Amino acid sequence: MLVTSCSDNPVIEIEEPQPPPVITDLETNPDPEPVGLLPALKVVGRQLQNEAGQPVNLHGFAQTYSPFFNQNAWNNHDVAGCLRYNQMLIDGILDAGWEMNFVRMHMDPYWSDDHSIEAVRYEGHERFSETRFIKYLDEVFIPMAEYANRKGLYVVFRPPGVSPEKIAVGDDYNRFLEKVWGIVSAHPKIRNNGGIMFELANEPIHILGPDGTYASNGQGHFDKMKEFCQRITDTIRVKANNIIWVPGLAYQSSFSGFASNPVKGNNIGYAVHAYPGWYGSDTEEASPELGGSMGGGYESFQRGWNAQVKPVADFAPVMITEMDWAPAKYNASWGKSFTGTVGGPGFGANLKYIIDMSGNVSWLLFTECHRLAAFMDTPGKPGSYTFLNDPEACPWPIYHWFKEYADQGSSTATALEKLEIVGMKEELQILTGGERYLIIKAHFSDGSSRYVTRDTKFHISNEVILRVDDKGVLHALKDGSAVVTAKYTPTGGEQHEVKLQVKATTFPLTQELFNPSIWEQGSFDEETKTLITGQWGFGGWWYNKGVDLSGYKYLVAELGNDNQCSVSFRLFDENNYWSQPALYDFGSGRRVVVDLHDMYKTVNGQKVKMNPATLYIIGFWSSGNKPIVIENVFLTDKI
Questions:
Q1: Is there a contact between 506 and 514 (Cβ–Cβ < 8 Å)?
Q2: Pseudo-torsion of CA 595, 596, 602, 606, nearest 10°?
């Protein structure tokens, strides 16, 4: 996470980008064969693989080497004290039973800072001393890496400090990272060492784009981020073939633009950060104890992940290099949330499910090492939980999840007794043009259970209405009903199946599918069909992939009460609430009729005809805070 002082940010002068260095073929370099204490891993397609060609996902923790992050157990650049304390913590973590196989090591600027220069932030480059860095690379970071390797832990080096808020191709920070990684990758104990990997930067936020603005999204800005990271990658590849983990933008939460312009080269994956509230995930405010009103739940989290991380996870391995959660009362985590349940509210359980469904995500627990070393596998008691034994805080579930990963393939098979579609009743409603996520859970005779969505086969009774992909994602193509059959066969066991009736509808007036808060916080009562928007608010239906209404002539919206808050019915043909809609004011009436083939919006004072085949947002705008009873919304060919 970002650590700053109270000082203002320094002004960074942007220089013209310089061409990247010429890449030397590694076969011409000395020491081309991997060296080190651990078997080399490699990137093959979207997987991290071992020497036998088997996919590998790593699970680990993080260490930072400075007195502040080491509970002031040593100081005054005491190398021996630093090594003794942090090696003791590694031993303590493994002795506590944690099934860890990698550690993210921060080459903290405490060691590389020139202390004759006044500190401004915690970025690592503004006071960087190359001499000090080389000295302590040898004395601190490499000895710690070698110790971790001897303990069976792969190492991911992170450069000193954090990224400035604004970066640019060829700026002083870009050159700093090229220098750091040039030094590291050339070191004879590091280059081509299969036990050591490189995370290029920590939490870039905004980059200078081709339009002259700083931002963290948009293809032009991602093109520049690719260029920024390519320079560093090319510097490393002159000497070394170690695995590289590429950061994204927006604190390493935004990666979508890499899909069309990835960093080039071999042995490259992407380093992701994940905290409660990111990707549409739940924060603590979503807790049932607090009313659950702010929760995005699983599906919101999955959609956010799909938008920001899946684009790179589709072609390269991913490593989550920062992640934690816990209720705020423990004051022991960056992220404030709770474990929750798969498919329901909460952060932790849904994150693990999303990771497991992806199948190529390595991840760590960012909890401080002295806490991990103090862990005891003894259940806590409700009402007197601690951070380490509360099932709703990250250490307790992750300790057992990591054991499950380590034990995979060694458990004795038991009979499958029941197959379940998590959270589903007899009938599921889905928004036409939208999608829902099926979660399949298998229950076994020994009382154990596991999620088997990735190994489940799906069948749709009417593929005109619905389609489903191999990960259980339902897509509603048009209004109507169909039956989904999920079939799962355990290894050496008998096949089980479960069925679900699904109804696709364009305008459902249900708590689940009607969104009263598309703009400003609103509410919707399903029983009375009453919408109350926030001030100047909007509620209705958002079709992420668009809905096609071109097969109908008219769309009719009817109110069940008088218009008390300037209600208008609005339709958007862009996937953006701030685009211009077609407007239909109710005025003093209770009914509006939309001629779908004669709709217009006003853009820059000009009327522009809209296409009913590509609509994204439809619903009700009001001045707010008054009840709007929605009598009916329907499609028809006759008025």
A1: no
A2: -90
Q: Which pLDDT score, from 0 to 100, does residue 7 have?
A: 31
Q: CA 209, 214, 216, 218: dihedral to nearest 10 degrees?
A: -40
Residue pair 362/59 in contact (Cβ under 8 Å)? The answer is yes
CATH 3.40.630.30 applies to domain 416-505: no
* Tens-digit pLDDT profile for residues 218-261: 999 999 999 999 999 999 999 999 999 999 999 999 999 999 99
d(CA 194, CA 196): 6
Beta bridge partners, 600, equal 609
For residue 361 the two structure tokens come to: 């995500």
The domain spans of the chain are: 26-375+384-407, 416-505, 515-636
Strands 537-547 and 515-519: antiparallel
The pTM assigned to this predicted structure is 0.85
CA end-to-end span of the chain: 59
Residue 342, token pair as written in the block: 């798969």
* Per-residue DSSP letter, 140: I
DSSP 92-117: HHHHTT----EEEEE--HHHHB-TTS
CATH of 26-375+384-407, one of 3.40.50.300, 2.60.40.770, 3.40.50.11810, 3.20.20.80: 3.20.20.80
Please give the pLDDT value at position 296: 67
At 3 the pLDDT is: 38
CATH topology classification for 515-636? Jelly Rolls (2.60.120)
> What are the residue ranges in the chain where pLDDT is below 50?
1-34, 292-294
User: Which helix (H) or strand (E) covers residue 402, if one does?
Assistant: helix 395-407
Instruction: Output phi, psi for 301, to 5 deg.
Output: -60, -45
Tokens of 607: 């009327």
How is residue 105 written in tokens? 């090591």
